[in-house]
Design goal:
With about 140 residues, the protein is mainly α. About 60% of the residues lie in helices and about 0% in strands. It contains six helices and no strands. The protein is globular, with a radius of gyration of 18 Å.
């Protein structure tokens, strides 16, 4: 006789396949992209924001689908007060990975700095959904 699941408890279900949760399937990152990204991150760590932003721009030029480069570029631009450019980079990041909590949080911060409170609240709502285990895009 088959056992019934306990009431009120959900089975964990199958293990999600690679690429689940809004993240693209892993792809090969070129040595050139990895080197530029590492160099940019080094400049960012040293507070050399202009240099970091230039290298993150190089990264997205090499691979326009590289989420981490778009997200890092948006943060570097935000810190240098280049808000319109930061907004564009952040929107690109959220379009590449719509279920990324930090991308939506960053987008909300940029909208706040631009004084666009309705869009800031909408982005914050998406980050809240994700923080509770929900999904923005299924």
């Amino acid at each position: 006789m088959a056992q019934r699941p306990q009431r009120g408890r959900r089975s964990p279900g199958p293990i999600p396949p690679i690429g689940a949760h809004g993240r693209p399937k892993p792809r090969i990152v070129t040595d050139e992209l990895q080197q530029a990204f590492d160099d940019a991150s080094g400049h960012l760590a040293l507070g050399e924001l202009e240099e970091a932003a230039a290298l993150y721009r190089k990264c997205v030029g090499i691979d326009p689908t590289h989420f981490d480069s778009w997200h890092a570029l948006s943060m570097a631009l935000l810190k240098t007060e280049k808000l319109k450019e930061a907004l564009g980079a952040s929107l690109q990041a959220t379009s590449l990975q719509p279920n990324d909590l930090l991308a939506w949080t960053a987008l909300s911060q940029i909208y706040v700095r631009l004084g666009d409170i309705p869009n800031a609240e909408a982005a914050k709502a998406n980050s809240r959904i994700l923080s509770l285990g929900g999904r923005v895009v299924r």
